[in-house]
Amino acid sequence: PAPKVPEDAAAAPKAAAVTPSGLAYKVLTPGTGSQHPAATARVTVHYSGWTKDGKMFDSSVARGEPATFPLNGVIDGWTEGVQLMVVGEKTRFWIPAALAYGETPRRPGAPSGMLVFDIELIGIE
Questions:
Q1: How many CA atoms lie within 13 A of 100 on its CB side?
Q2: Which of 32, 51, 63, 96 lies at a 20 to 30 A Cα distance from 106?
């Protein structure tokens, strides 16, 4: 089943933490690990992404298969955000356009503006 749209997709709640770059996040489920991935680590995650109007544009959860990739090969908001996580943690990120695909993405089909992602860190290679 597809994950349901976060009720706070339009904007980060006041309780969310915000990094100096403008990345906002809130831990949904605390992790069990103690190690944080490096920016160059390969990670395995389950994730779902929505635009701020609540439209899901991508989800490994809906596909039923986690994704593995190098953290330095994704949007800046992911590279920064996933480094804050430990294995087993599930976090919601509000990623400003500047750390995502921008207000007018150059990549065909990429979503524009602020994006919301729920990311679960499954493993670090």
A1: 24
A2: 63
67: exposed, middle or buried (Cβ count in 10 Å: 0-12, 13-18, 19+): middle
Tokens of 97: 């356009």
Per-residue model confidence as pLDDT tens for the chain (125 residues): 679 999 999 999 999 999 999 999 999 999 999 999 999 999 999 999 999 999 999 999 999 999 999 999 999 999 999 999 999 999 999 999 999 999 999 988 899 999 999 999 999 99
SS3 sequence of 13-79: CCCCEECCCCCEEEEEECCCCCCCCCCCCEEEEEEEEEECCCCEEEEHHHHCCCEEEEHHHCCHHHH
